[in-house]
Structures are given as C-alpha cells and as structure tokens.
Structures
1.
Amino acid sequence: MNKAEKINAYRGEFKNTFREIRETHKLFNYFGKEKRFRFRQLAAELLLLELEGDFNNKIFPPLDLKTLIFGIKKYEKKISKNKLRFFNGNLDYIVESLNMLLGAFKMRDIISFYLLISYLRHKRAGNQNLKNELAAFAKDFMQKLNLFSIYDTKPPKEMNRKEFLLYKSYKHESKIMTTANSFRNRLDIMLKEFEKQNPIIIRDKKRLHDIEQKRMLYFRQKGMCTECNKSLDFTRAEAHHEIAHSAGGKTDDLSHSQLVHSRCHKRLEKRLKKIKLLQ
Ligand SMILES: [Zn+2]
C-alpha cells in the first residue's frame, strides 16, 4: 500500500474530515483523475499543516506517514470548529484566487500556496484585497518557476542570476517536499516574492495601531488628514476607528481606520456622537 492508501485505512474525525473535504470542496474539481486516494492525501496534508502548524514561528509538521498517523490519532475525537472554518476559508481562497491556473499546479505547489495564504490570513494586517493580490502573484510566480528546469545551470534570458537562484532553490525545496524545513524555506521564498508586489505588515493584536500600521495608513492617505484634507505630521497624527472598540471594531482592521489631526479627531468624534443621538 502507498501512503494515501495507508492513511485511508484509519477511522475517526480527522479521517472523516479529509475525506469529506476531498469529496465536497470545489478545489478538487480542478484536478484530473484521482489515483489511489492521492487527493484525499492532499486534503489530509493541508489539514495537518493547518492544525499542527505554528504560523507565528513558521514551524510546520513534516508530512511523512508517521506524522500523518500522529495527526489522525490526535484528532480522532474532535477538531475545533473555528480551525475547520479557517481551514475551509483558506481552500476557498485557493480556488477563488488561482482558479483556472490550478489544473496546471503540482500538488507540492498547492501545498506551498496553502501555506502562503494561511500565513497571510493568520498574520497580515489589511487583507481586503488578498484575492486579487494572490491572483496576480500566482501568475507571476508560476511563470518564473516554469521558465527553466531544475537541472539548468544558467538563468533563462528573461531572468537575472539572483532571481534564477531563488526560484531554483524553491524547486529544490519543493522536491524534498515533506520536511519541516522545506515548508519553512518555501514559505519564506514566496513571502519574499509576494512582498515585492504587496506590502506585508504583520498585525499586532495587542497594541493600538502599531507604528507600521500607522505608517501604512499615513502613506495610503498620502500624508493628508482625511477630515480637513490638510497635511499631517506623522508623529502627531491620531488614528480614528470608524467602528469604535466598544462597538466591536478591531484595531487591526485597517479598512475602517484613518489618520487625522488631534483637533480634527475631536471634531469628528463630536459630529459622530451627534449623528448617533439623532438616530
Ligand atoms: Zn485635519
């Protein structure tokens, strides 16, 4: 029996979940014929990366048979509903951002993109445009990856040497495929490339508008106060949240935040209070 057939022989919640995901999630519509439970194995691998991955420190489980069986046993009785919802959300992101490209992906690249998407959704502030960002990034990344073969020693004419070596190391890492280091290195390479096109600001749940987020808002507003449209001194600017914390607004949601002058902030709050009273 191969790995996929071996893990398929187990019972329990983890097994039920990866079987159900494989049978119901639209992600699997994009692939060709399934050979010997290979897609069930992919669903199991992605699930294990989500449940056992430490996205803060980028430490991921190896996807060898032993670790998959460990996961099957650990989650034999129960898997957290929140984690499953997040997991499903990541799979939706894969489909909605990569869609037609998916048929040409190798399984190992789907795993890499899964890690990238989950990492960004776990860690990054301001994911409002993530689907479009991923769609553009995937086209670019996959094109570069397929410009040359792993045996080539010289960069293709479309690529400089530095880029060539980076993508070549990704190819090597993804060929190894199942070690913890391989996942971390692949994710780091993808993040590095993704960041060339898109800012990655790590959100800070504890502090109110961490300095990096404040800087992001500042440049997004082109250094102007959104209240009076006059230029703003960065160090003295104040963050205003459209939805107050007391009403459930999140500090890490940049789409509902703006930077304003201190005096404008007071005026703004007063006006909002008045509107509220009238309602
Ligand atoms: Zn102002």
2.
Amino acid sequence: MKVGVLGTGDISHAFMYAASIAGVITESVYHREMEKAVRFRDQYGILKAYDDYEQFLSDDGFDTVYVGLPNGLHYQYGLKALENGKNAIIEKPFCSNIREFDQLLEMANRKGRFVLEMDRVQSLPNFKSIKDHLNDIGNVSVASANYSQYSRKYDAYLNGTIGNVFTTEFSGGALMDLGVYPVNAFIALFGMPEKVTYKVTKLPTGVDISGTLLMEYKQFNATVIVSKNSIGNKHIMIQGEKGSILTETAPSVIEDLKLITRKEVTDISYPQPHDGFAYTLMDIKDIIENRNMQRYSDRLKQTKSVVTVLEYARKSAEIVFEADKNTY
Ligand SMILES: NC(=O)c1ccc[n+]([C@@H]2O[C@H](COP(=O)([O-])OP(=O)(O)OC[C@H]3O[C@@H](n4cnc5c(N)ncnc54)[C@H](OP(=O)(O)O)[C@@H]3O)[C@@H](O)[C@H]2O)c1
C-alpha cells in the first residue's frame, strides 16, 4: 500500500506520524495551493507535490488516497479517487449522510477498490479491553460519554472568522466532529440503538455547538454529551449491575481504563504506546494489503451504522447540511 495524501492540515501531519509507525509509504501530496503542498512534501521527504487533483490521481506511484479534508469534502474527493482506480481512506466522519455512504461503496465495488473510514476507536487496544471486560460488569444499566472540548476555532468564530467545522456547507458541528467517537464506541459495543434523539444548542450557522444525544437500547439508554464551546469531564462510562468500566480520557483516546466494582478498582488498560491513529492505519493496511475481506466488511458495516445514527440524530435536531440537499 502506497499513499497519496489529500490536505496538509493538522490531521495530515498526524497521518504521517501514523504512517511512520504502521510502515506505510507516502508518495505524493495534494493541496489546492502549491506552496502548501511543497512545504508538506519537503517536511516529510515525499516524492511529489500537486495542486491539481486530476494530475494527482493520474500518478501511478500510489494506490491509496488518504482524504484529510473537511467533512463536507470527503464524499466528492473520495468518490473521485475511487473512480480513478485508487483505494480511499477517508477521515472521520466518513461522509455526510447515508446516500453518500451507499454511493462511495457502490463506486468502490464497481472499481474493485477498498473504501475505509479512518476511525480511531475500534482499533485502540484499550477499546479491545472494554470489549473483553464487558462481561465482568453484568447487565448494562446505563452508558454515558462526554466529549467536550473548547475549540480555538470557537474563539475565531466569535471574532467573525467562521471555520469549516461550524458550517453546514462543510458538514460541521459538535456531533460530527466529537460525537462520532462515542457513537462509534457505543455501536461497536451494543449494536444499533432502537431510537436516537439529539437535543442541541445551535449556532446561527445551523450547526450544533453542543448537544446531548440519547441512544435508546432495549434494556438501557446511552447518552453522549458533546460541546465545542465549553470544557467538561471527558469520559466513557458503562455501568452494569456488577460493576462499571470507566475512562476519564477523551473518547477518541481511551487511556487509563478502570474496572470499578463494589469491592475494588482495577486498572484494565492494555499497552497502548502509540497515538490512536497508528492502530487504525495498521488495521487498514492489513485489510488492504492482505485483502482481509471479513475485516473489511465488518468495518464497513460499522461505518454505515455510525453514518446512519449521525444522520438520524441530525434529523431529530433539524440540522440540515448542503450535502443533504444535493441530488448528485
Ligand atoms: N484536526 C484534527 O485534530 C482532527 C482530528 C481527527 C479528525 N479530523 C478530521 O480531519 C478532517 C480535516 O479536519 P481539519 O480540522 O484538519 O480541517 P481543516 O484544517 O479545515 O482542513 C484540512 C485540510 O483541507 C484543506 N481544505 C480546507 N478547505 C478546503 C477546500 N475547500 N478545498 C480543498 N481543500 C481544503 C485545508 O487547507 P488550508 O489549511 O489551506 O485551509 C487543509 O489542508 C475532518 O474530517 C476532521 O473530522 C481532524
């Protein structure tokens, strides 16, 4: 697997770190401004820099495109990459709605290529620990997560500069940005909820700056609190009749995992020396290079479930993206 990177923002730098751990070679980089593409190329000793997407895609030095662009661009750039015979690894959240998911998958299948979400949660060793210890807490009675992180971009927003993450044009908002991690975790642990309801505080731009998502399961409820304009106690907590599992780190990070029973508190963290990104890329590399179709289909199923919950949640909060109005 050799990669061409789209975008030169923070997340593309994080990708390069993950690539160095996972042993993935980056051959080319694209940015719509040549100067930024060249700066990124030179920083990492990448072979080629492009500011023309068509030319970038016709470079046969790499087989896989990493889409590190704002949410609202994932679909169009990912689709074009697939159409041109590349695999596509797309940042979270994978796309804006279910229709986009179906079309990306349809194109990947038609071209015999892979399309995968760069989701952190499932690949983390400590997420595996949560799964391994779920039986220890007995029947789940309630689950909760809080991912509140005051955003620098919110200060800029207050000063009149509206970042992509705060627009419906780029499929932004707190749920799409932060909520995607705990939603991913709860779906991977408990499956699809029977019902979702999202109550929000909206910006005048139409996106949620904070909100509370209720995921209703047969026997219990899971809540997810997200906020980009306040700080909070980041955590995931799963409470059962015999004990609880708790991490008080960000739901994208999941460290310092504890099993709490009436008698004792036990550290159940697994070794997790790398940044979370690296584990995801290792998994994706395995799927693509070894054509591991079972793992591929499991990940796609998970991604579709997350995209579906996010869309239903948004609908309940009347958050409409430009992508929802497109007929393609
Ligand atoms: N940032 C993080 O820590 C982080 C963490 C996890 C996941 N993600 C995901 O990574 C993706 C990118 O997020 P981000 O916050 O890094 O976004 P961003 O900084 O706003 O943009 C990422 C890259 O896309 C470029 N870009 C912006 N608008 C564009 C346009 N209209 N056409 C083409 N290129 C454009 C940016 O160029 P300029 O720099 O010139 O604007 C930058 O190189 C999102 O899907 C997000 O959910 C980000």
3.
Amino acid sequence: MRNADKTNYYWPVVDGQLWLPDGQPATEAPQGSHACFRMDLPETDNDYRHWICLSEKPLPLAPEHWLNLRDLMGSSTPDVWYWAGRALQIEHWWRRHRFCSACGSTLPEPAPERLTHGEMVRVCSSCQIHYYPVQTPCIIVLVTRGDYCLLALHQRSRTGTYTTLAGFVEAGERIEQTVVREVDEEVGVKIKNLRYADSQSWPFPSQLMLGFYAEYEAGSIEPQLEEITEAHWYHYRQLPKIPPRGTIARQLIDGFISEREAASHKSGERE
Ligand SMILES: [Zn+2]
C-alpha cells in the first residue's frame, strides 16, 4: 500500500534494463507497467517504500535514462547499487519463470498485493511447486604470498584488467572446498589459512560473491588456459590494472594493500 508518510521510489525494469533518470529512482509510478510491487521487506519500518515496476512491453519513458547495471558500477551510491541490483534480480526471476519446469504449465501471475505483502514467489497451480528468486553462490579469492598477491588476466576480460580468482560453488560442496578447488583448477597453486572477508551481491544475473583471502602454500602458477590468459605474483606497490572500486575484487585487493602498508610501517618503526 502506498503510504503518504513515506517516500515512494519506483524502479522500472524491462528486459534487464533499468530506468534511472539522473542516477536516481523515479518518485512517480510510470504509466503502463504490467506489475508494480513493493520490494523493500514489508516487516521493516523504514521512511521509504521501494517499488519495482515490470512490463512485457516498452514503457513510455524517456529513452535516454534506460541503462544496464554495469553502467552504474563505481558511479552510483551503495544504496542505489543495492536497490538497482535487487530490482534487476527480481525482474530476471520474473521473466525466467513463465512456465513450471516440472510439469510445463503456465505459471499464474500472483497478484501484486500478494507479492508486496507476502512472499515473493510464483506457484504452479497444477503441481504446487514454488519458484522463488534464487541467488547462486560463488567464491572470489585473493591469494597472497607475503608482499605479493596473485592476479590473473581472464580470457573474457575486454579491458585488460588483472583480478582475483572466482568460481561457482558446485553441488554438494562446502564454500571452503570451492575456494581450494578453484585456485587449484585455475592456477595450479595450493593454498592454506583461508580467511573470509566479505560478500557482495553480484546481479549478473544473480550471483552472491563470497570473498576470501588465502595464503600461498605450494606449487608454481600454471594457468588453466581455457579461462585464464596469464597469472602472476604482483608486489602490492606495483600492481597492474585492477578492477574498479565498487567491486568485491577491488575491495579484497585494497584490503591487502592496507595490510601490507601497515605491516611495512610497523617494521619501519622497529628499525
Ligand atoms: Zn507444475
């Protein structure tokens, strides 16, 4: 229910594109939306309401304000990034769940009021299977060796950026197993002393990145060439082109630099 005491923000999303005039959500509901429902959690008592507006057809909105989430990376506030990411993941779920994957029935559309006040779920009316928006867990890890860290140029990189290693959690795996396996697979290096750092929702389209540090234990770098063009140890003061701010990869690298700077400062004090 729209509430006059609250500030209402509207996030129109059509086919993976978000309408965001001047980098801020609209404060008026767009005309012609197919479904418009609240996406902030109903039980929280906030000063705002965030609404996602979905449509099968183009909406009559100024065309220059449609953008991809990648356009926002590094330039938006954490708040805008969060809501934009949430809106795009919800739209992705909505668009990809038109039919039941068990029995093939068309999934009925829940009433927007139900989505707003109840669970965000589409239910098959034939076999009762529930379809929720799902996040896919992935690990991302910075392997360190004293003042050096391991950065890789990925085959898919179009910007020549050297970054951390990452990969999807396989069925049945614990997160820690995934980290060890991915590092071994991608660069042939054994690691130890895993340390969880932070997480980041990565809505491309729906990953949850779990960020770790790990220390080098053994082995020499042998990149898996299907995925990685090259990988090297880099001194924290002589890094190649690294990912932009706003990414968890950059956060891990920046955290490592700070740690090494602090350690260097301490050893300087002792001398
Ligand atoms: Zn079904």
4.
Amino acid sequence: MSAIRESGWKSGVALCALMVAGCGSDMPGPQSGLIALTGATVIDGTGGPAFENGVILVRGDELACVGTAADCPVPEGTPRTDLTGQFITPGLVDAHVHFDQTGWLDGRPEALATDVYPYEETIQYLWDDPGRWHRAFLCSGITAVYDVGGAVWTVTDEQATDTDRPDRAHVRAAGPLITHVDYNAPFMTGMLADQPVFLPMQSETDIVEDIAFLQSIGSQAVKVWYLQPDPADVERLDALLMAAGAAADAAGLPLLVHATDLREAKVALRAGADMLVHSVGDQPVDREFLDLLAANETFYAPTLIVPGNWSEAVIAASEQSVPVIDDPNGCVDAALRDRIDNIAAYSDFAGQLSPEDVAARRAAYQAEMDVMQANLIAVYEAGGRIVTSTDSGNPLTLHGAAINPEMEAMQAAGLPASAIIEMSTRTGAEAMGLSDRIGTLEAGKLADLIVLDADPREDIANMRRLSHVMRAGFLLEQSDLQLYTAPVE
Ligand SMILES: [Zn+2]
C-alpha cells in the first residue's frame, strides 16, 4: 500500500482554473469571454442528429451557439480548442446517489459495523467534506446528481448543496427518508440523534409532521422507503403511502419511492410517485404497472449494479480478500481506497459465508439482474422515462465511477447506446427539475459537457474514454480531475 497518491485537484493548474477568475492559465475559461470548441462530433442530448465537425461557442457559463460551422461562425480572435476526432455530449446526470454513504461497508447504519470505522465517525467524516463526492462526480463526467435520501446535513450543509459553482455538480436533495421500518432506535444515538436519516410513518400525523420537517430544512423532494409490509399490516401501510403522496403533492414536492417489488411499486404509482428510485426486481412488470407508469409520467431509475456490488462487498469481508474496483478514470480517492483495502477491519466476518453461501448469493443477484434487465426493456418499449442511476454510496457502488458499469448494464439489457446517452443527460435533468438549465446542449443552457475519445453511440463503454469535462464554461482535461493515479511499476 505504498505510492498511492492524490493528483489533479491538488495541482495548481486545476485549482487555478476552477477557483480564481482570470488567473493566467492558458486553459480556456469563462473569464476569456467567448471561447470555441471545434471539430468534434456533437451529440446534443435532444435526440436529434449529431453535428459532425460541430462548433460550440461558450460565453461565460452558458452555451452561446451549438451546431455546424455554418450555424455557429467563430468570430475572429476567439480562442479555440480543437477537438477533431472527438465526441461531445452533455454532462452526465446520476439520478440516484447518497452523499452520506461512503461506497463501502462502513457507510450505512445497518452495514457490517466494526471498531475500526464506527458509523458515527464515518458520518462525521462524510459531513466534514461533501466536496469529496463533488470531485469524484466531475472526475467521472457527472455534472448533476439527485441525492435521493440521507441525513439532514445532505440538505442543509451548503458544502453539499450550494452547487452553483464550477467545482461542484448540481445537486437536488431529498434528505431524511419517510419509512415504516424502525431504523432509528438502534443506530441514531449521540450526534446522530440530530441527524435523522429516517422519519416515522406510523400514522397520518407522522406524515404531516415529517413533511413539515422536510419543508423546514429545505428538502427538494419527499422520499418514502417502502419495503414489503407484513401481510397483516398491508392495508394500513398502503394507506399511509397514499397519504404521503397526497401530502407531498400538497407541499409541492416530488414523491420519490423505493419500492422494489411489483405490488409495492404499483401502490407507489397510485400514490402519485414522480420517481421509482429502483427497478422492480422480484418479478416481471405487467401491463397494469406500465399503464400506471405512463399515466403518471413517472421516472424509472433502474440501479442495476447495486445489488451485485452489495453482495460482492459482503463476500469480500467473509473471504478477507480486497475486492477489485472498477475505476476507469482514477476517480476513487485515496481515503476511500484505503478503507476498501483495509479488509482486515472486517476480520470478525471472516468465513461467515461458506462456499455454498457465496455461490447462492451470486446466483441470487444474477437472477435479480436478469429480472431487472428484462423489466428495463419492458419499460423502454412502453415509452417509459428512464434515468441512469447508480445508488452510489452503497458498498462498491462508487461515487462517480459507478456510472460506467451502470450504463454498460443498461446496454447489456438491450438498450441502444444512443438511448442510454439521453437517459444519462436530458431525462436525468428532467427528473431533477433542471431541464431548463442543463441536460442538453442548446444555446442559453449552462455549458456543462464532456468530451470523449471514442463514439458513445457505437458502444456506451466509450463513455469511459473521458478526455475533458466542462462545467459552467470551465474546460478541464480529465487528467487534471483525477483523484488517483496508479503507482508506477
Ligand atoms: Zn439509494
């Protein structure tokens, strides 16, 4: 574990370009007035044809013109960045993340607890620097994220949510989850008592109070965590979910629901869910589900890779083997890598799974993946509004880096790469309520875009070939955004 080093964000050039107006870098930026990106194939996210040899003019933090050379003549003297042979898309949107989870086993209250990483200390570590995830997102080409549930600070701490800045991704945040599951008592003591992740859902009074609380802290959505209720309690809890939908609607907040089984997902849709934050994974979706989804215009967030990643993290703890992580652009920071490498912190769990248990877990998550992928195609063919979404923060679903395997799992399900590009840009911006500012490359919108070395329409895996990221008019080379560089042999 030697020679790991942070790079990029600590380098003068990146900080200069991001933080200091006109600080003399030769990197094109908004302070230089109009700039031009020329020569690339521009996929603007609208679903229209791409512009070969396109021109993008940027003034300040906005797009001034996007089109062909004829559409967008470059005024003499305008600084140009020649991107011939490359591909430009809007910045990516991850529609399901959690700022208050690490991406490893230590980041959830019910995860494997250890003396090495007590949950309370981990939450403090996350709260101390929400910027770590902003850096990971931009490093991965993600310029907007929907935090669909977490501690109070994920809504109130301006480091997490004051995102009208070029060194941060746009954020919309739901804050604490409303749930019928009682998770507070065993975990939420000490400083965590003031930072609830979960709000009660045992009565209509609870719901009224929960939504008033969410409004008081500035939540931008209402998230309900709806697990399979006890059969004896189904009617009561279904009615409470309906009440939560009505109350969210009255408060003018979108309703986001975690409901991974078909029956519960239908109740969520009847309650007016604006987004289902996961796939239906227990069985194939049916006509009734698809009709409800269409009638509500509900966004559907597949989160395909998170169950398998969870299982592999638990298997790694049992086998005491450091898991291999998928980090194509060096966006997993050294502190998180250290935590993942320190598998000995979980030595209490060594050998807890037999080889048969491991095989059974892998078979179970593969079976769930098969159902989720088939359902994704059914939703797509029915014209559903699908948003690329990772659930990053959960074990081995790594902030930023997870976007690539997630998009590839969508492609493996059978979605065309061109459709996945729109789900990862325009539709995500729509789900966040930000489509007037981001999500497509059109004059007047913010200059948030990525540059790739290979065509993502040919293969969505080409999204790994990230060359540059522009956020609010600042163009940075991906190498200047990297958080980790592999040791030199
Ligand atoms: Zn989640």
